[in-house]
């Protein structure tokens, strides 16, 4: 894209007092940004009103600095892209949204945005150990079926979903709420590098944009819009994951939810979605069949252990969170023996400790 054209796009998007709705109206009325700025202010006013038209008369003070920063970023590698409305690589599904992003910054393979099979996996930033395991295992199984997992690079379920998809050998898309010249959260820096190498990181926010709270719910519409369906692994009743699920449903996409313990706050959002009509799923195969996607070429699922082969302590735990006192009452084991066995199971990854002194069995496979 020529410098002058890129400058016109940035001027349109960075002008204070001109929101995305006004930008889309101007583009619909006059065409490309350079054509917009070729119009007199009276023409702008007729489309977006006097206040926005007055704001457009003066270029933003930081326009040249933002343009230089973007050009330097684009020159940093062939894996850096800017997609605008009408670009051949712009995802057509986003154009069907009421408020599509006007510009997308992409780090990685922009072709991944047109992957034929995409599923969003979202959930709690503070999942139970089992919830994090579920996210990774579902994503890995979907990746083995050549499904591109879309998520938000957040802590918890998002990070596990991206990691699982990569382990499954498929590309994954991370839609973030910051500029692409920074990684948030910082502990996902290595994961972000892996995603960019095997998939794509996407943002509608200019370079330099910090992690502002209001940007994350806004980016959820892109996660939902890019995907044929959305799987919620764990979520509280009031959470960004449920916003993503609602947006997916409003866009006519399928919503799936994994049920959990009635005692876990992280399961209540999923149970609410199921009551509202989301599809309860127990395996990745449920999703593949519902979306009519082909099965993985090679499935790597471990058979479930037979009941008579299960550890007696694990049988006593069940699958819900349980306190040490309750477990001792169920098993009749003395405290020292019980603690020793629990430590063995914890070290082997079969049991996890939860906040509040609770314990929970973890599914294997």
Give a topology summary.
Layout: H1 3-14, H2 20-30, H3 33-36, H4 41-48, H5 50-56, H6 63-74, E1 80-84, H7 92-95, E2 103-108, E3 118-122, H8 129-144, E4 148-151, H9 157-167, E5 172-175, H10 189-198, E6 200-203, H11 215-225, E7 229-232, H12 240-250, E8 254-257, H13 265-275, E9 279-280, H14 284-290, H15 312-317, E10 322-323, H16 324-331, H17 335-347, E11 351-354, E12 358-361
Parallel strand pairs: 3-4, 3-7, 4-5, 5-6, 7-8, 8-9
Antiparallel strand pairs: 1-2, 2-6, 10-12, 11-12
Helix pairs in contact: 1-6, 4-5, 8-9, 9-10, 11-12
Give a structural overview.
By secondary structure, this protein is an alpha/beta fold. It folds into three domains: 75 residues; 181 residues, Rossmann fold (3-Layer(aba) Sandwich); 55 residues, Arc Repressor Mutant, subunit A (Orthogonal Bundle). 44% of the residues lie in helices and 13% in strands. The chain has 17 helices and twelve strands. Helix 8 runs parallel beside helix 9, helix 9 packs across helix 10 and helix 11 packs across helix 12. The longest helix is centred in the middle third of the chain and has 16 residues. It is elongated and about 85 Å long.
Q: Could you give a short description of this structure?
A:
The protein has helices at 3-14, 20-30, 33-36, 41-48, 50-56, 63-74, 92-95, 129-144, 157-167, 189-198, 215-225, 240-250, 265-275, 284-290, 312-317, 324-331, 335-347; strands spanning 80-84, 103-108, 118-122, 148-151, 172-175, 200-203, 229-232, 254-257, 279-280, 322-323, 351-354, 358-361. The protein is an alpha/beta fold. The protein has a nine-stranded mixed β-sheet with strand order 1-2-6-5-4-3-7-8-9, sandwiched between helices. A three-stranded antiparallel β-sheet has the order 10-12-11.
């Amino acid at each position: 894209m020529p410098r002058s054209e890129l400058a016109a796009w940035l001027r349109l998007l960075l002008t204070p007092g001109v929101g995305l709705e006004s930008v889309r109206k101007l583009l619909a009325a006059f065409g490309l940004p350079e054509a917009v700025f070729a119009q007199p202010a009276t023409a702008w006013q007729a489309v977006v009103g006097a206040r926005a038209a007055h704001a457009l008369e003066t270029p933003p003070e930081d326009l040249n600095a933002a343009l230089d920063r973007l050009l330097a970023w684009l020159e940093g590698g062939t894996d850096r892209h800017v997609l605008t409305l009408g670009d051949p690589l712009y995802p057509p599904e986003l154009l069907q949204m009421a408020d599509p992003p006007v510009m997308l910054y992409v780090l990685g393979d922009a072709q991944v945005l047109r992957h034929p099979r995409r599923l969003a996996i979202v959930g709690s930033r503070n999942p139970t150990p089992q919830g994090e395991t579920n996210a990774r295992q579902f994503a890995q199984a979907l990746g083995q079926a050549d499904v591109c997992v879309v998520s938000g690079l957040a802590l918890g379920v998002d990070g596990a979903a991206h990691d699982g998809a990569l382990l499954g050998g498929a590309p994954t898309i991370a839609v973030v709420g910051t500029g692409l010249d920074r990684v948030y959260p910082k502990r996902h820096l290595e994961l972000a590098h892996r995603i960019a190498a095997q998939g794509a990181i996407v943002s509608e926010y200019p370079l330099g944009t910090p992690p502002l709270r209001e940007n994350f719910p806004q980016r959820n519409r892109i996660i939902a819009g890019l995907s044929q369906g959305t799987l919620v692994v764990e979520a509280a009743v009031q959470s960004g994951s449920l916003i993503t699920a609602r947006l997916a449903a409003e866009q006519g996409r399928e919503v799936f939810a994994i049920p959990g313990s009635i005692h876990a706050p992280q399961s209540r959002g999923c149970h609410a979605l199921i009551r509202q009509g989301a599809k309860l799923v127990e395996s990745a195969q449920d999703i593949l069949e519902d979306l009519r996607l082909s099965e993985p070429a090679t499935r790597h699922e471990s058979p479930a252990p037979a009941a008579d082969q299960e550890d007696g302590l694990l049988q006593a735990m069940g699958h819900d969170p349980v306190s040490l006192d309750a477990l001792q009452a169920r098993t009749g084991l003395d405290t020292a023996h019980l603690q020793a066995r629990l430590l063995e199971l914890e070290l082997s990854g079969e049991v996890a400790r939860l906040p509040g002194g609770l314990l929970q069995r973890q599914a294997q496979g």
